[in-house]
Design brief:
Blueprint: E1 3-7, H1 12-28, E2 38-41, E3 47-51, H2 54-70, E4 78-80, E5 84-87, E6 90-97, H3 103-115, E7 120-125, E8 128-133, H4 136-148, E9 156-161
Antiparallel strand pairs: 1-8, 1-9, 2-3, 3-6, 4-6, 5-6, 7-8
Helix pairs in contact: 1-2
Length: 162
Amino acid sequence: MPSFDVVSEVDLMEVENGFNQARKEIAQRFDFKGTGTDLERDKDLNLVVRANSDGRAEAALGVLMEKLAKRAVPLTALDVQPVEPAGGGRVRQLVKLRRGLKQDDARKLVAVVKESGLKVQAAIQGEKVRITGKKRDDLQAVMAALRGAALPFPLLFQNFAD
């Protein structure tokens, strides 16, 4: 019986490449010169924007999001936190990467699959949802329905098996 898994992950190499491109652009752009604006990573693979004002932090975040979008990293994978003061007249903004499918998100996926009206089954298995059906065409229709649904997290389809 054909099946596939739906997970919520991003390609970390593409995130790394987009991050490095954004850092280079911020270092070279004239409007960021002398402002101390920088991008960093912490130990949990979250991204941190540091700047001397809210406006500079927003501009640096815009550069980061632009570079990630060009690298085909879905922007729904970014959980942007509010700007917070960091001492010394500086601000910082944390950008968390969403990885893993939470139970509530998995339930939303199952609801979208059931609303599609196709003859498939959806089962939550930890941090993934397994979709099984008798016809390969039904599974491809489910993929299209999930891509078309406005879900607030990135989707990746894995382990397609006949």
